[in-house]
Amino acid sequence: MNALRSLGIAAGLCGLWQLLVWLTDAPHFILPGPLRVLAALYGNIGLLLQHAGVTLAEILLGLLLGVLLGLGSALTLIWFRRLRPWMLPILVISQSIPVFALAPVLMLWLGYGMASKVAMATLIIYFPVTAACYDGLRHTPAAWLELARTLGADKRTQLLQIRLPSALPALGSGLRVAASVAPIGAVVGEWVGSSTGLGYLMLHANARMQVDLMFAALLVLSLMAVSLYFLIDWLLRRLMPWQSETLFDDAREAE
Amino acid sequence: MLGIDVRNASLAWQGHSVFSDLSFHLPAGEWTCLLGQSGVGKSSLLRLLAGLTEQMQVRAEIVASDGKPLDGRVAWMAQQDLLLPWLSVLENVLLGPRLRRSRVTPAQREQARYLLNQVGLAGLDSRYPAVLSGGQRQRVALARMLMEDRPLVLMDEPFSALDAVTRLKLQDLAAHLLADRTVLLITHDPLEALRLGHQVLVLQGSPARLTAPLRPLDAPPRAVDQPEVLELQGRLLRQLMELST
Hints:
The structure holds two protein chains of two kinds. By secondary structure, chain A is mostly helical.
């Protein structure tokens, strides 16, 4: 049912797109129709996959580093109470710097290879992940911690056995946001300067008026981002069976 | 068995005194029920005994009958069951050993199963708390507390969120399973106090004072429709109403 609905939505959008092409009578190098894009996808599949692989590697590495750094920062903030007044303003200020503006400098520092793109993706997800993790870790119900204390749990065990698991849903939403934002970081990095990756391919194709190829690359990128999101969503559900159980009950109640 | 003396307990809240110089005795192996309206400071008294006094201006002299400190000898049961949703029922009962970072031994596992059986939840070991009813969840909390096997048990309105019949059943179960422990139960329900307490204390007024202990004649748990229980309940309710404005 769900799959059918998604297919229906996709078909509807493609129909609108085709309609727009017919109505405006735009030339194919300005706005190609969906079929033309599919043909470009089919015809350049090898090229697209090769560049997609590079972008995917950048996204995954950025995701890994960003999540590790974000979780690490949140844990540091929770563990060392004294650091909070110093670190929190720095975090907020760092967030006010537009990451896109940093892209050229990152290129200069880290070169045209993969490192600068990974750094870009890492930076762009670092703050949302840190904020989500920190909030989740901070809002542990006080009564759980008190119970843990009467049961003889030390500070480390309270963090590992109570705070961390109770923050998992919040960490999960941080991770979902990260998964949907990381591709942006990688592609922006590629736009600023690179010789591989979907971002490079899109820019290159655009410059040569191969708009159908540009759209095909965009399609591959979206598919990748969507799959990544659902993969992470699925993983999180597997990690939190007690949550899906309650969700399942909610769904049953709704019926 | 452990008897406890609490002397000169005082609690200040937002600059004014809620109570001061309260003294009472928890007789060894008996249930003491402390009755009072909300806001009278009874939970604070309990938390004082549980060692959960962070950010609270409550203090007292606490003397155990064996002269040793209370640390690690107190079990605490709150109004909420406080089951961890990510642990199964059995793992929740075994929370104590898990939090003390000791390996759960097969004997402990066996003990936890036995206790779950005792509280009437045999066969639900691997369920998550989310699928249990309120009464079942509080039974798990009871089993978790029994698992700790501590001489002093503190209960903070543990049955108040349950429906009437479930509450009566759990009161009987708790009275039966904690028969030889020293128990302090806090409640705002006179019937609960009269069913379960060897002695019943009333905390009321501003600043709050304790009444002389009321000791019904026979041993708890007492039946709901016992004449003495009903008569005393009427008296306690009248007393509570007269003194509250």
